[in-house]
Amino acid sequence: MPKTMFVSILGLPNVGKSSLLNRLLGEKIAIVSEKPQTTRTRIMGVLTQGETQLVFTDTPGLHRPRTKLGEHMVRAAHDSLDGVDACLFVTEAGRPALQEEETAMLRQLRRQPVILVLNKVDLLPEKARLARQIAQLSGGYAFAAVVPASALRGSNLDALREELLALADRLDLPQAYLFPEDTLTDQPERVIAAERIREQLLRLLDQEVPHGTAVTVEQMKERPGEAPLLDIEAVITCERESHKGILIGKGGGMLKTVGTRARKELEAFFGCQVNLKLWVKVKEDWRNREGLIKNFGLE
Ligand SMILES: Nc1nc2c(ncn2[C@@H]2O[C@H](COP(=O)(O)OP(=O)(O)OP(=O)(O)O)[C@@H](O)[C@H]2O)c(=O)[nH]1
Ligand SMILES: [Mg+2]
Q: How far is the CA of 87 from the centre of ligand 1 (A)?
C-alpha cells in the first residue's frame, strides 16, 4: 500500500541540513553555504521510494534571533512540526555536548519519533569520539535511531533511508501518496533562481552584507529561437547604502562576479543558456520591517 510520511529536518545553523536534503533527493533544491543562517524559509522536498513517499521539510537553523527576520526563521523551524510524522535531528559528529537551542528543541519533540543524524563524520579523525557521543546523547533522549553520515560525501545515506523507511512501516500513516510521484519540491522556479543568486552572495561576501540581502526575480522569460534562452532579471536588495557599494564593487567588479557565477549555476539547473541581469537596491534595515519581510516571501 502506498503511504506518505512527513519528515522535518531540524538542527542548529550550518550543521548540514540543506546539504542532507539535497543528497537524499539527489537534486539540489536548497542552497548551501559555509555561513550560518543560509536557509530562511521552509523548503519541501519529496522522495518517492518503493511504496513510501517521504516529504521532507528543510528548515532554517535554530538560533537566537537578532532581527525580525531571524524571529520568522526560527518560528518557521518550530512551525514545521505541525502535523509532522517524524524528525531528522541533525547535529555535528564529535561535538562534545548539545547546545541550548538543541536541547530546547528536543524537549519539544515528544510526540514524533526522532532520528539523530551525526553529520560531517568525514571531519572526525577519531572514531572513538563518535561512540562516546552516541552513548552520551542516547542517554538523554530516546532516539528512534542514530545515524552517523556525511551529507557532503554522501556516505551512509543508504542507512539513513533504510531507517526512514523502517519508521514509515511502523507508523500509522495515510495510505496514499499525497503528491504526484514525480514531485520534487514546492519551490517555484523563480524562487530557486533567486536563491541561487543569493547563494553566490553568501559565498563571495563577508559578515553582515550577504545576510542583509534579499533577492527577487522580477522577470523570467524564455526567448523563442532554435536554442532556448532564458532572460532572468533580478533585484538584490540590501539594507544599507554602504552595503550597496560593497555589492557592486570597484568598477562593478563584485556584481559582475556574482552574475557570472550565478548564471553558470542557473544554466546548469535550467539546462539552457541564461541571460542574467542584476540590479542592487537599498531598503534601510529591511530585516526589521514586517511589510518588507512579507513582500520578500520570508514571513
Ligand atoms: N565536511 C563536511 N561538510 C559538510 C557536510 N555537510 C554539509 N557540510 C558543509 O557545511 C556547511 C553548511 O551546510 P548547509 O547544508 O548549508 O547547512 P544548514 O544546516 O542547512 O545551514 P543553515 O541553512 O544555515 O541552517 C557547508 O559549507 C557545507 O558544504 C559534511 O557531511 N561534511
Ligand atoms: Mg540550510
A: 18
Alpha-carbon gap, residue 299 to 290, rounded angstroms: 8
Is any atom of ligand 1 closer than 6 Å to the C-beta of 57? Answer: no
pLDDT digits (tens, 9 = 90+) for 171-212: 999 999 999 999 999 999 999 999 999 999 999 999 899 999
- CA 70 to ligand 2 centroid distance, Å: 14
Residue 32 Cβ contacting ligand 1 at under 6 Å: yes
The candidate with the shortest Cα–Cα distance to 178, out of 7, 25, 23, 26, is 7
Q: Residues whose CB is under 5 A from ligand 2 (ion)?
A: 17-18, 38-39
What angle is formed at CA 37 by the lines to CA 284 and CA 56, rounded to 5 degrees?
125
| Domains present along the chain, CATH in parentheses | 3-170 (3.40.50.300), 189-295 (3.30.300.20)
Residue with cell string 512579507 = 294
pLDDT score of 64 more than 90: yes
CA-based torsion, 152, 154, 159, 163: positive or negative: positive
Q: How confident is the model at residue 292 (pLDDT cuts 50, 70, 90)?
A: very high
**Is the pTM of the predicted complex or chain greater than 0.85?**
yes
